[in-house]
Amino acid sequence: MKTTLLIMAAGLGSRYGGLKQLDTMGPGGETIMDYSIYDALQSGFNKIVFVIRKSFEDEFSAVFAEKFRNKVEVELVCQEIDEVPAGAIYNEAREKPWGTGHAIWVARNCIQEPFAVINADDFYSKEAFETMEDFLKSKKTAEKDYYSMCAYKLQNTLSENGSVSRGLCKTDTENFLETVTEHTNIQRNTDGIIYSSFADGSKIELNPNSNVSMNFWGFTPGIFRHIEQQFVLFLKNHGQELKSEFYIPSVIDELILNGIATTEVLECNTKWFGVTYAEDKLEASKNIQQLIENKVYPSKLWK
């Protein structure tokens, strides 16, 4: 059975100061994406789709497309502002694409099988990929609107160098997702308390053991139809705004609310790390080196 890994790699890294998805972290010049792809292939995934921008397509292809061409089926798709459903109207002064929901939707024409979605700049762990692959190959995915999400503990997903965005998850007693609420400004204060800040200056304290989404989702191809329907409505309501984002958690929230989709939460107790800020690179490199010393990875992934 074919399973695809879709990697959202179109970000320009404004807070990081460059293309963090291409920045090397491992001793053999590996990026964080290299480790995700290695884990995915070891777990049984057999196709990779990269969502990128045209502005760095040549640079990206030189680093990744050729590296994996003889190891796994690879496709590149571009996420651009003007890639919208037919007839949609938007503010042409906008400079950035429309968010994670849009990033997934642009890959609709090259995925016809169960697939997982990840961020390019997040390290998820081999255990998470194995758990997701098992889900995608299970009989559950015969139901076109039965999805999954790997959830991490909030306290394991913070940066010491600034605020982060996380989707806070609420689940029922059987660990199915009820709601996921996007928080765009989460950080830990000097007392160790984790809180979320809002535009009006207010704050709320968050439970460090809360499950959060790191955009590691498991879908069937039917999700593309649902995304498009909601994307059309989003553009109608927000298409003239310059910075509004169409988040995939909001899509899932709406589907659950209306009884259309079921999303199983797959808990991952491993520690996440990633690179939101330039200062995160040193810690990410240290974490990778420790995993190599623990024999989780070879010193050079693609010998």
Would you write up a description of this structure?
The protein has 303 residues and is of the alpha/beta class. It has a single domain (4-293), classed as Spore Coat Polysaccharide Biosynthesis Protein SpsA, Chain A (Alpha-Beta Complex). 27% of the residues lie in helices and 25% in strands. Strands 1, 2, 3, 4, 6, 7, 8, 9, 10, 11 and 12 form an 11-stranded mixed beta sheet that branches. A two-stranded antiparallel sheet has the order 5-13.
Can you tag this structure with a few keywords?
303 residues; alpha/beta; Spore Coat Polysaccharide Biosynthesis Protein SpsA, Chain A; two-stranded antiparallel ribbon; 7 helices
Question: Layout of helices and strands, plus pairs?
Answer:
Layout: E1 4-8, H1 32-43, E2 47-52, H2 57-68, E3 73-78, H3 100-105, E4 115-119, E5 122-123, H4 126-136, E6 146-153, E7 164-171, E8 177-188, E9 194-197, E10 203-205, E11 211-219, H5 223-238, H6 248-257, E12 262-268, E13 273-274, H7 280-293
Parallel strand pairs: 1-2, 1-4, 2-3, 6-12
Antiparallel strand pairs: 4-11, 5-13, 6-11, 7-8, 7-11, 8-9, 9-10
Helix pairs in contact: 1-4
